Amino acid sequence: MTKPNHPTVLITGFEPFGGEAINPSWQAVQKLEGLIIEGHLIVTRELPCEFDTSLESLYNNIALHEPNLVLCVGQAGGRSDITIERIAININDARIKDNAGHQPIDTPVVKGGPAAVFAKLPIKQMLWDLHEAQIPASISNTAGTYVCNHVMYGLCHYIETHKANLKGGFIHIPYLPEQAVHHSGAPSMAESTVIAALKSMIASALSHDQDLAIAAGTTH
Asked: What are the catalytic residues (predicted)?
């Protein structure tokens, strides 16, 4: 395989799960394939919504593409804005079965790993730039306990133990309007807004090594 002329960014989305016909993460992420942002080639891949095999696929793609930045994106039905995840915890506690029929309960993502790991991203800078672009966004302090958290923990733990210079983390996005119409009262976000947000966050993450010190916490 010929190496690309540009350094790469790996962006992943998920296949549909939980009875949905689409997953907004992959719907949006795949539209970035081949773009050049901040001198980096964007490579997009769809991950299975399955424990363990999702991480195997992610690790294989990191080894293949040798990215400088990895952003994993997932669906958070019920959330109203772009949420940049701050932390992942070392637990699998699946409320529903994954797409392979597995439902791990109270098992570690990485046996012997720390209780939690933080995103390897300038999350406050990314948030600031989204707000400057008039895109609703916030910092999230829970990625859940399903496959999204599983992937974020696996990614950030991998960076800590294998590739200290790699930037990486997880982004949750709302339903698309065509999904929200089937969930009474659920918020949604247009795909064009999600794509604009992803481009902004990629540029922010690549352009800044130091994060901003701005308040973006919560009281509960």
From this structure: 85, 148, 172
Q: What is the DSSP letter of 181?
A: T
Is residue 52 a part of any domain in this protein? yes
Catalytically annotated residue among 40, 85, 150, 157: 85
- Is 148 labeled as catalytic in the residue annotation? yes
Is 50 noted as a catalytic residue in this protein? no
State pLDDT tens for residues 140-185.
Answer: 999 999 999 999 999 999 999 998 799 999 999 999 999 999 999 9
> Is 214 inside a domain boundary?
no
- The predicted model scores a pTM of 0.96
Cβ proximity of 41 and 34 under 8 Å: yes
pLDDT digits (tens, 9 = 90+) for 62-109: 999 999 999 999 999 999 999 999 999 999 999 999 999 999 999 999
> CATH number for the domain including 43?
3.40.630.20
Q: Which residues contact 129 (CB under 8 A, 6 or more apart)?
A: 200, 201, 203, 204
- Annotated catalytic residue, options 49, 65, 72, 148: 148
